[in-house]
Amino acid sequence: MAEFLSRRDIDFLLFDWLGVDDLVKHERFAEHSRETFDAVLDLSAAIAGKCFAPHNKTCDQSAPSVGADGTVVLIDEIKDALDTFGEAGLMAGAFDEALGGMGLPTVVAQASMTFFRAANPSITSYAFLTVGNANLLVEYGTDEQIDTWVRPMLEGRFFGTMCLSEPDAGSSLADITTRAVPAPDGTYRITGTKMWITGGDHELSENIVHLVLAKAPGGGPGVKGISLFIVPKFLPDGTRNDVALVSLNHKMGNHATTNALLNFGDGTHRPAEQPGAVGYLVGAEHHGLTYMFHMMNEARIAVGGQATATGYAGYLASLDYAKQRVQGRPVDAKRPGQPQVALIEHADVKRMLLAQKSYVEGALALGLYCWRLVDEERITTGAERDNAHLLLEVLTPIAKSWPAQWCLEANNLAIQVHGGYGYTKEFDVEQHYRDNRLNAIHEGTHGIHGLDLLGRKVVMQDGAGLTVLAERISHTIDAAMEFDDAVGHARALRRALDRLLEVTATLWSAGDIATTLANSTIYLEATGHVVIAWMWLEQMLACSGRDGDFYDGKRAAARYFFTYELPKVGPQFELLASLDRTTVEAAPSWF
Amino acid sequence: MAEFLSRRDIDFLLFDWLGVDDLVKHERFAEHSRETFDAVLDLSAAIAGKCFAPHNKTCDQSAPSVGADGTVVLIDEIKDALDTFGEAGLMAGAFDEALGGMGLPTVVAQASMTFFRAANPSITSYAFLTVGNANLLVEYGTDEQIDTWVRPMLEGRFFGTMCLSEPDAGSSLADITTRAVPAPDGTYRITGTKMWITGGDHELSENIVHLVLAKAPGGGPGVKGISLFIVPKFLPDGTRNDVALVSLNHKMGNHATTNALLNFGDGTHRPAEQPGAVGYLVGAEHHGLTYMFHMMNEARIAVGGQATATGYAGYLASLDYAKQRVQGRPVDAKRPGQPQVALIEHADVKRMLLAQKSYVEGALALGLYCWRLVDEERITTGAERDNAHLLLEVLTPIAKSWPAQWCLEANNLAIQVHGGYGYTKEFDVEQHYRDNRLNAIHEGTHGIHGLDLLGRKVVMQDGAGLTVLAERISHTIDAAMEFDDAVGHARALRRALDRLLEVTATLWSAGDIATTLANSTIYLEATGHVVIAWMWLEQMLACSGRDGDFYDGKRAAARYFFTYELPKVGPQFELLASLDRTTVEAAPSWF
């Protein structure tokens, strides 16, 4: 089996680039050291390699089903892997020690998660949703809610979900119809149907903690009326709550992750002989969407991380294949009879490997940079904190969407490197491609994130988020101007950044929101390429003055990105600057 | 079930654009008329709709297996569909009446095949390989071979395959090791292993006619020593030939098409108690690869056709969904409470539909244009014939690769339009995506076609092929300059064409073949976009002066292509013109 993630790259990004070991200077992480960080990364790599990676294909071949007794049937390896993960304390990596956590910086905990995501993304989804669910409750739940629901989640005994979508309200949350009615005992009774619920039902954990968006009486119309509830599968006294599995979705990939249609309060179970599922309000009524965004923002970066890790695993698999498989001769071969060479000797194969490397290592850098901002936000104050928050807001749609698009393209190229073998189930890369295709959809499609970036993030607080981004990129450019091997890239990035700022202003000067937002997905793609180019320039700086294959490889991938990828933004910005209305003007009857 | 192909579009392309009804003026097609063409299209649409489309998902869910008796197990619907196809005479559509064919122009016969490809590509592969096999034998086989093998194939009783690849020689045909030894009776005895054999074994037909590349004694090294043999599963006397199924490949998609590893002459069967599989030489010894290219070139355009048709089916499925599914509100909605709208009302959804439309209708136009050239080559003489041949040579790598890349992207967008539903097996689009992924691999990967186009096709006969292409494109541009709504597109295409010619010259001036060919895949992509832009300008001309939704839709798709797609060639040509050596210089040890 090929390696699924490069520990060397993780170390480079965390320590040589992001200076994560410096975080221990802050009192919050004072108990930690480079040694404890290394230990958790070693542990994660070992468990992922031993308990997650070997079952990735088995999971794919054994999609979940509903048994005769109505429970979800999954292969035993999934529970074993997650039990090992939980018992190692990894569910609680970044949580306070008071909650039984390791008190790790988020960036270290998430780097350690990357090993699991690369080894077996569809098992790992249970863990990442549980962590996100617990984070939300730590932020907004009561002490009692934390004791009742968070502690068992951090121990790996309960798992968490997020329940937003409904059959008639996917991206359109304003239209959800799930209702919450206050009960005399201070709880609520929830009635409605939720779909696309990842980890929505299974027998992997003692309990499932659903976080459910529902409308309680008295809320305004649209998203304003939405409140957030804890609706557990089992109530604290062990009674079955009225959460019923209707069906599982059968998907192209990600087979080990159950994805369910759930009924709340349909009468399948009747806790205390009353109708409705018992729900516990989180925070205040009618503020549910704000709370949910806490989890959703984290989940969005995590989805980008799944995409990145799956792309990374495919890259390494195709690299391994390209080094082993002997086929064809160099185009400048002098004699027809000379021996064949390994695939990796061919320029077009190197192009496909460099492309993958530039996508997956660029995306990994962005993901870790974002998690580092989560830490920054926590340990800084005042303007520094505000800036970290703003930057994270702007980067989140990119950190979610860019890897979902380009690390899927990496998986596409990994198949291509394998030729016909890549299309067969004998190798792993076709599974990566199917698994990764999900990531452009869940936690908001590309289209939603395009609207979020252009319609909200770059204009909020009078464009403060975009200003912070531009300042940080400029800072990198200025530093890179000092290095001969980076100066050309720095200039190219400067031009692209200037163009981004110009084009943003032009779009918002259109005076017509439909025209401004008509090509927001293209805006998302182009901004994403600028941001990843920045990540590559940052990596160039971190490599500077260092020799050896690893650093030469980083420089080659940066060169690839600046030569083959960044120039793609040229026509994209031109299209955006023209305020083109091709799509707006196309009539449905023309199709 | 959504429509899978637009008959209106087929009619537009064949009759309004390509003037295929004019072909009946030629004596070869004098028996035909617009009515007979319509009749075969009607018949094809009806059979495809009735016998092919309803089983597309069933085929996907029932991948072939090897039964206890060693035979291939397929669901009954596949044989029923192919029997109906054969009994309707469709296997022989473009063959001479003397052979029992309909004597149709190739372009009409292939347009009729498009219905089957769109309805159920993995069943249709058996037919397209059989037709290609028969075409090769009609061209190079003896009368006896035609009577023995071709006639039953055209009746739909025998199916054909092409056997090129071996476990250690995929794209590298010079390295095949299958051997042919002459036997005293004039036949040969074949020994070796062939893999990736589409339709390699099954019980769908009375016999399977394998066309096998093998090395006979006395040939030179490399591809020069290769000869071509008919190696049937059953000999004319009904004896089992020594062709043994070793295993079936299990694939990501295209499940109804068996794909086999076959042993020839391993002793499983011993015809006439002699070792080796009996083979009949086609044409002269050591010229096998030339003959095989006759079938391969046809197969390449057909693979582009499969990709196109699968893209087309996905486009129509997502269009249907976008019209039905109500979700979200316009970005310029005045009140939050106003009713939700159909997906197709959103600009970003229209973008995804226009993109798909421009890819699949552009690719369909190119495919039919190529088949029209096959007819042109047959019914013309002298310079006209040479030009048709040259143009077809240049266009073949594009007609294969462009649809494989962009109609797969169409399938990707079709999933995206469906949101989460698109990722489930409840809808068809995830299957399209998996099925279509094959087409960038078989009959030569993108990389192989990039080398073919830049390394061979545009420089053969001192660049005569590229000159013919440029002349034809220029002719279209000149005509388009007369029309107000096309003049902007015409100018853009002129610039792109000029750039293509300049860049081709620059690449070949590098003086170093490794540098010239380093980015041949990028050259293939860019040239493909220029060619498809030409196809759209041609369609604009065919629409000119016509009103109505259909023509407005064509104009909108053309506008999309010229606005969003053609500009992508700018940075690609810049990269090529710079003779960039990023890939050549990357050392394997850096990865």
Textual characterization of the structure:
The structure is a homodimer of 591-residue chains. Chain A folds into 3 domains: 7-157, Butyryl-Coa Dehydrogenase, subunit A, domain 1; 160-286, Butyryl-CoA Dehydrogenase, subunit A, domain 2, CATH 2.40.110; 445-591. Chain A is globular. Chain A is built from 19 helices and 10 strands. The model of chain A has no long low-confidence stretch (mean pLDDT 96). In chain A, 55% of the residues lie in helices and 10% in strands. Chain A is α+β, with helices and mostly antiparallel strands. The longest helix of chain A has 37 residues, at 288-324. The first copy, chain A, has helices at 7-17, 34-52, 56-61, 76-87, 106-119, 121-140, 143-154, 288-324, 347-379, 382-418, 429-436, 446-457, 460-480, 487-508, 513-517, 520-543, 549-565, 569-577, 582-585; strands spanning 65-66, 72-73, 158-163, 179-182, 188-198, 207-215, 226-232, 243-248, 259-264, 277-281. In chain A, strands 3, 4, 5, 6, 7, 8, 9 and 10 form an 8-stranded mixed sheet that branches. In chain A, strands 1-2 form a two-stranded antiparallel ribbon.
Summarize this entry quickly.
The structure is a homodimer of 591-residue chains. With 591 residues, the first copy, chain A, is of the alpha+beta class. Chain A has 3 domains: 7-157, Orthogonal Bundle (Butyryl-Coa Dehydrogenase, subunit A, domain 1), CATH 1.10.540.10; 160-286, Butyryl-CoA Dehydrogenase, subunit A, domain 2 (Beta Barrel), CATH 2.40.110; 445-591.
